[in-house]
Design brief:
379 residues, mainly alpha, 2 domains, 20 helices, binds zinc ion
């Protein structure tokens, strides 16, 4: 298996605690890869950067970021190679940073006139991966619910592939595909409703949008669990045996498209484009957060907002939690519909209940379409 090979190639038997050169090695390799990818985007912007993002880039800030990543990769690489016996992580990071510099670094000029058209969207993948890892990895390392799980737990490479698959392919599946979709508000909108909502204070409009979106999500999510044909697709999301921020991105594209479509359709009836955009940013951050391996509680908030432990109960394979907690933002929506389950502890097991699905990305993508009905039924 590729994952085993990666672990063997980069890993060793030494401790991974602070001061052992492990994290500096990881950071060096991570920053090196990001800076190398960033420089590639500067060289081939037409092919690699997302047309929707190009117009909005503070290009100077991006160049400074690439420069910082190069310097960071070298510095962390030096620290790691001093502290750790196995130097492969440090070397990888430093080599990528040197390659990025040799290719012109952050000062590569963009001379072509860019036009819309198919693009791979490597820029969005790198930026989102960087931001999400920056927010969630420290939280999970500092206050984990399951400290033994680690950042590079079983099947982490599979979830990176899922993260990539929703970001890279020509934006067909990424959340950016929804940017042009929000333009449809012009055609779908009901003017009386739009005017009524637009008169409310911004925050109230936003709150109302989250409520509408979560009620819509509740019903499509319920259908994904109860309709055997739809469950085949959603089972992929539930196949994670350990949850963390990146496990949240394990989702079949049919599942993703259905959920997003169901959420967006009612929003488009009455909400402005800026509110829908704000919601899309909020749902990306909040949905990722609810999958986190993060232990601390905030009892006063848990009644009103879905916290990691709440969504973890949705992912359990223990009987008492099956088909519970469908809401992704507000627990009280489950209370209203009778699917609320929130004991004062964490689940002990995650994943599918007695069902097996392939651990391979391509098979997970194809099999829901081809599976025979009896295998698809959830027990
Ligand atoms: Zn579910
Ligand atoms: Zn989930």
């Amino acid at each position: 298996m590729i994952e085993q090979k990666i672990n063997e190639f980069f890993g060793d038997a030494e401790s991974t605690g602070f001061g052992t050169g492990w994290w500096s090695g990881i950071l060096s390799a991570f920053f090196g890869s990001l800076s190398f990818g960033g420089v590639l985007c500067l060289h081939f912007p037409q092919l690699l950067s997302s047309p929707e993002l190009r117009l909005h880039y503070p290009i100077h800030t991006m160049r400074v970021l690439i420069q910082c990543l190069i310097v960071g990769a070298i510095l962390f690489g030096i620290i790691s190679s001093i502290l750790r016996k196995k130097k492969i992580l440090a070397l990888t990071g430093m080599l990528l940073a040197i390659a990025a510099t040799a290719l012109g670094g952050s000062s590569v000029q963009i001379n072509d006139t860019l036009h819309d058209g198919p693009a791979i969207g490597l820029d969005w993948f790198l930026l989102d991966l960087f931001l999400m890892a920056l927010i969630y990895v420290p939280l999970e390392r500092l206050w984990p619910q399951y400290p033994k799980q680690g950042t590079f737990r079983n099947e982490w490479t599979l979830d990176v592939v899922y993260f990539m698959s929703t970001h890279l392919p020509l934006q067909i599946l990424s959340f950016l595909v929804l940017l042009p979709a929000t333009q449809a508000t012009k055609y779908l909108g009901v003017p009386v409703l739009q005017e009524f909502i637009a008169r409310m204070p911004w925050f109230l409009q936003f709150f109302l949008a989250v409520v509408v979106a979560d009620i819509a999500e509740y019903f499509i999510h319920l259908a994904l669990h109860k309709v055997p044909f739809l469950w085949r697709f959603h089972a992929v999301h539930h196949s994670s045996k350990a949850l963390d921020w990146i496990a949240g991105s394990r989702s079949h594209f049919v599942d993703d498209t259905l959920v997003r479509g169901f959420i967006l359709a009612p929003l488009m009836l009455g909400f402005s484009q800026s509110i829908i955009m704000a919601y899309l940013i909020f749902v990306t951050i909040h949905a990722t957060w609810t999958h986190c391996n993060f232990g601390p509680h905030a009892k006063w908030l848990e009644k009103y907002l879905v916290m990691p432990r709440y969504h973890h109960w949705h992912h359990t394979s223990q009987n008492e939690g099956i088909d519970k907690n469908f809401a992704i933002h507000f627990p009280w929506i489950d209370k209203i519909f009778g699917t609320y389950y929130y004991p004062d502890k964490w689940p002990e097991r995650y994943g599918l209940d007695g069902e097996e699905i392939s651990p391979n990305f391509f098979r997970q993508t194809i099999e829901p379409f081809t599976k025979k009905k009896k295998n698809a039924l959830k027990i």
